[in-house]
Amino acid sequence: MDDATQIINSFKALQDDICAGLENLDGATFREDLWERPGGGGGRTRIIMGNVIEKGGVNFSAVEGTMPENIAAALGLGKNEFLATGVSIVLHPVNPFVPIIHMNVRYFETNTGKWWFGGGIDLTPHYIIDEDAQFFHQQLKRVCDKHDQTYYPKFKQWADDYFYVKHRKETRGIGGIFFDRLAGESKGPYGEFVLDVGKTFLPTYLELANRNMNKAYTEDHLEWQKVRRGRYVEFNLVWDRGTKFGLDTDGRIESILMSLPPQANWIYEHSPKQGSEERRTLDLLKKGINWAT
Amino acid sequence: MDDATQIINSFKALQDDICAGLENLDGATFREDLWERPGGGGGRTRIIMGNVIEKGGVNFSAVEGTMPENIAAALGLGKNEFLATGVSIVLHPVNPFVPIIHMNVRYFETNTGKWWFGGGIDLTPHYIIDEDAQFFHQQLKRVCDKHDQTYYPKFKQWADDYFYVKHRKETRGIGGIFFDRLAGESKGPYGEFVLDVGKTFLPTYLELANRNMNKAYTEDHLEWQKVRRGRYVEFNLVWDRGTKFGLDTDGRIESILMSLPPQANWIYEHSPKQGSEERRTLDLLKKGINWAT
Question: Which pTM value belongs to this model?
Answer without folding.
Answer: 0.94
